Amino acid sequence: MAKDATKDHTGGGGDPARSLALLWRKQTQAPVRNGRRDLSVDRIVAAAIEVADTDGLGALSMRRVADKLNVGTMSLYTYVPGKAELIDLMLDTVYADTHRVSAQSPEDNRRCWRERLEQVAKQNWELYHRHPWMLRVGVSRPPLGPNVIAKFDYELGTVAGIGLTETEMDTVLTLVIGHAETSARRAVEASGDGESGVSEQQWWAAHNPVLTTLLDQSRYPLAAAVVSAVGRAAEDPKHVFEFGLARILDGVQALVDSRDTTG
Q: What are phi and psi of 93, to 5 degrees?
């Protein structure tokens, strides 16, 4: 199954049994205590996402969420076992936050699968920018909650019936979404919102004058030319994403065309 490739080990990866029970709402609702009838798993998750969106995953804690909800920290544990399971719930919730067009006929899908797959990549790129903390969650696979499954099923539909095997369909999605994630991570870092706190423009502004002076153009003509060009393009973080996506889609197109020719 297509998965993201986050490696930052900042959280997530809760106990599978407890996380899945919460994700699919199979866990019995906690009893009302101290008259807090307005507290629920959904409210806790929404508050946690707001904290992470505003201040980053490093700022997320059970206490911070409790303070935001104006309840005692221990009240949260009545509904959510811990921070790891909470992050699993957060991930599944935000995975529902993508635009999805209506299903198309098999004939239409064979004609415009490339455009639909490109839109999937852009939707994931935008999702990571709306919720950049997703890029820091230390799990290799998202929890298999209802929103993750629904998103995966929709995305599979973009490459259904175009000549790929089931495994190839999954692999294509892994390539496309993985590229969107990696490019989004670079873009977040380039904006200065990453761990370094230094934007791409700031880095190049500091280094480019020195590199221009020190780099021997006669000895390293290609490197000098490329460094100069990359420095000028540093203000366009979407370039790598869009260029790489086009090349990936070219490769998928070649595979699909070969199946049409041989089939």
A: -65, -45
Q: What is the pLDDT of residues 59-76, one digit of tens each?
A: 999 999 999 999 999 999
Neighbours of 26 (CB within 10 A): 8
Give tens-digit pLDDT for 223-256. 767 766 666 555 577 888 999 999 999 999 999 9
Residue 16 is which amino acid? P
3-state helix, strand, coil in the chain (%, to 5): 65, 0, 35
Q: Coil, helix or strand for 198?
A: coil
Q: Letter for the amino acid at 28? A: T
Residue 210 has pLDDT above 90, yes or no: no
pLDDT score, position 203: 46
Q: Which residue has the tokens 């004609």?
A: 111
Site of tokens 């996380």: 19
Q: What confidence category does residue 263 fall into, taking pLDDT thresholds of 50, 70 and 90?
A: very low
Q: What residue type is 107 in one-letter code? A: E
DSSP letters of 114-125?
Answer: HHHHHHHHHHHH
Distance CA 263, CA 261 (A): 6
CB 28 within 8 A of CB 166: no
d(CA 201, CA 56): 22
In angstroms, the CA 155 to CA 252 distance is: 15
Q: Tokens for 219, please give them.
A: 């000895």
